[in-house]
Design a protein that fits this description.
alpha/beta, TIM Barrel, eight-stranded parallel β-barrel, 8 strands, 47% helix
C-alpha cells in the first residue's frame, strides 16, 4: 500500500458546517477531529474560538468559512470575517468566490475579492482555500479562477461548498490540478463519502478533502492497514 494512516488522516478537513448542528454536535465533532488526528476541523464561524481552544496543542488545525455559502458578501465583510476568524484562532480559511461576479466575467472584481482575504490571512501566517462552486460554472470560469488563484498566491483551490446541487467531480479535479501552479493545492468537497473515493482523488493530486463521513472513511483505512 502506498499510504499510511497519517497520510490519509492529514488529507481530511472534518466538516462541521451543517446549519442545524447544535453546540453539542460541534463539540463532539471537534473531539472526533482530535481522536482521528485529521488535518483540520472546518467549523461554523461562531464556534471557531471554542474549536481552536479544543484543538490547542494538537496537530489538528482550526478552520472556518468566509462568505459562505453563496459568496455574495461584499469584500469588506469577507475581510472583516477573515480578521475575526484569525483573531479567534483560525488557521485555515475556506472562502467562497463571488459566484455572480464570476458568471458576469468581472475578473477584476473577482481577483480583488480573493486577494483581499488571502492578503489578510497571509499577513498572519495562515492559509486560504478558495471555493469555486463548480456546479454553477463552465470550464472556462474554473480555468480562469485557477489562474487567478495562482497569480495571487492562494493556498488551495476548492471545488465546492457542499451545499450546491453538485460537488466534486473527477473531471473538475483533474481540470483544476492541470490549470493550477504546483504550489497551489487542490481540495475536493462534496461527494467524497468513502475511503475509495478519497483514494481516487488522491491519485490525481488532491491533497485535501472536505468530509462529514470522516469516521467511516478513517475506520475503513485503519481496517485495510490492519490497525485496531
Amino acid at each position: 500500500m502506498d499510504y499510511t494512516y497519517e497520510q490519509i488522516a492529514k488529507m481530511i478537513d472534518h466538516s462541521l458546517l451543517n446549519p442545524v448542528m447544535t453546540d453539542d454536535e460541534l463539540e463532539n465533532g471537534c473531539q472526533i477531529g482530535l481522536d482521528y488526528d485529521v488535518a483540520s476541523v472546518c467549523i461554523k464561524p461562531y464556534y471557531l474560538k471554542r474549536c481552536a481552544e479544543l484543538l490547542g496543542g494538537s496537530t489538528v488545525k482550526a478552520g472556518t468559512t468566509i462568505g459562505f455559502p453563496h459568496g455574495g458578501h461584499t469584500t469588506a465583510i469577507k475581510v472583516a470575517e477573515a480578521k475575526e476568524a484569525l483573531d479567534d484562532g483560525g488557521e485555515e480559511l475556506d472562502m467562497v468566490v463571488n459566484i455572480g461576479k464570476v458568471l458576469t466575467g468581472d475578473w477584476e472584481y473577482v481577483t480583488a475579492d480573493i486577494a483581499a482575504v488571502v492578503e489578510v490571512a497571509h499577513e498572519r501566517g495562515q492559509k486560504v482555500k478558495v471555493i469555486f462552486e463548480n456546479h454553477y460554472l463552465k470550464d472556462e470560469h474554473k480555468i480562469r479562477l485557477c489562474e487567478i488563484c495562482g497569480e495571487i498566491g492562494a493556498d488551495w483551490v476548492k471545488t465546492s461548498t457542499g451545499y450546491a446541487d453538485g460537488g466534486a467531480t473527477m473531471e473538475d479535479l483533474k481540470l483544476m490540478r492541470e490549470h493550477s501552479p504546483a504550489r497551489v493545492q487542490v481540495k475536493a468537497a462534496g461527494g467524497v463519502r468513502s475511503f475509495d473515493d478519497l483514494l481516487a482523488v488522491r491519485a490525481i493530486g488532491v491533497t485535501r478533502v472536505g468530509a462529514s463521513r470522516t469516521v467511516d472513511i478513517l475506520e475503513d483505512c485503519r481496517k485495510r492497514l490492519g490497525i485496531s
